Amino acid sequence: MAQLSKICSFIIIVFLLSSCSQSANIKEAVKITPVNQISKGLDDSNIYSYSHLFDNSISEQEACKTAERELKQQQIEDQCGVQDIESVSVLAFFNNDKQFYNFMRERITGEIAVFDKQSNWSIDRITPNRLKCTVEAKIEVTCHARDASFAPLFAEGVTLNKSNFIEGDSLKIKVESENNLYFYLFQYSPGLTNTKGNNKNFVRLFPNQLDADNYFKKGSYKIPSNNKYDLLLTLGVDEISTNELIVALALRKEVPFKDIMTFTEFNKILSGIKLINRREAHIPYSVNKR
Fold it and tell me: Tens digits of per-residue pLDDT, 231-277?
């Protein structure tokens, strides 16, 4: 392995290598809002309603905005379906508790073309501490088509050198590209937090400052593609093992991803890329103490 330069050690060791903290709280990484009441069509004029239940801990405005978001998402799912290309459960240990985390259960398959709210939000008090916000809107949805010709076997074409690593091992990735595409590689560490505790646990491994060319033509590729750096897998001081995930993307066009992101930030960017323009691969792996 070549010696890492100062800039390399900063980028690769600090940003590209994980160090999961046992005190991390995975629930801070993503908020999952339960479905309160299934939206329904009121007639044949594409007018739908949705009711969101809430308590006094949040404002009426926040609850009603949630109702709008849920109504939009529900109609996309109802009219376009849910693309669940690959559902991956990551087993993580925090404070000696086992937690399963379902990664990216749903993919956005369409977008709202028309959202015309029919009236002001309707607030009903069910109990002294239980309220309901109902929203009605005319909705038209545009569904995203999938182009089967773009990297149809991408998920099968991305492989790791191991699935069970020992601390200090090097991570190596092999990619079989079927089409011309832009390739991105991320490491998802459910327990990784920074000093501010904001769970920035999505780390971009590739492209990086030492390996920047991510335009792949049809053929075989390896990452790292040169001897300027290594992707070394590490553990936190008090950890004996961790379970993480490699997320690989094939995109038709370049997209600016930050070096390190929260789960929410990553999904916001990903959901803005139509399914016709992207493919994904999710590969779980473990790291154990030497």
Answer: 999 888 888 888 888 999 999 999 999 999 887 788 888 877 877 78
Residue 228 backbone zone (phi > 0: left; psi -120 to 50: alpha; other: beta): alpha
Tokens describing residue 254:
């370049």
Does residue 155 sit within a domain?
yes
Among 121, 143, 165, the domain boundary falls at 143
In a domain, 222, yes or no: yes
Question: 89 with 167, same domain?
Answer: no
Q: Do residue 129 and residue 150 come from a single domain?
A: no
Q: Which of the listed residues 100, 124, 143 is the one where a domain comes to its end?
A: 143
Nearest to 84 by CA among 66, 102, 106: 106
Residues 265 and 172 in one domain: yes
Q: Which residues of the chain have pLDDT under 70?
A: 1-44, 81-109, 145-148, 191-199
Closest CA to 207 of 221, 219, 220: 221
pLDDT of residue 191: 61
Record the pTM. Answer: 0.57
Same domain, 238 and 196: yes
Spatial distance between the Cα atoms of 234 and 19, rounded to a whole number of angstroms: 6
What would the two tokens of residue 289 be? 């103490």
Can you tell me the distance from the alpha carbon of 285 to that of 37, in angstroms, rounded to the nearest whole number?
37
Say if 35 falls within a structural domain: no
Collapsing DSSP states into helix, strand and coil, what is residue 273?
coil
Neighbours of 276 (CB within 10 A): 12
What is the rounded CA–CA span in Å between residue 245 and residue 283?
Answer: 6
DSSP 8-class letter at 67:
H
- Written as six digits, the tokens of 117 are 């709210």
**Residues contacting residue 102 through CB under 8 Å, at least 6 positions apart:** 87, 88, 89
For residues 125 and 239, membership in a common domain is answered with: no
Alpha carbon distance 52, 33 (integer Å): 10
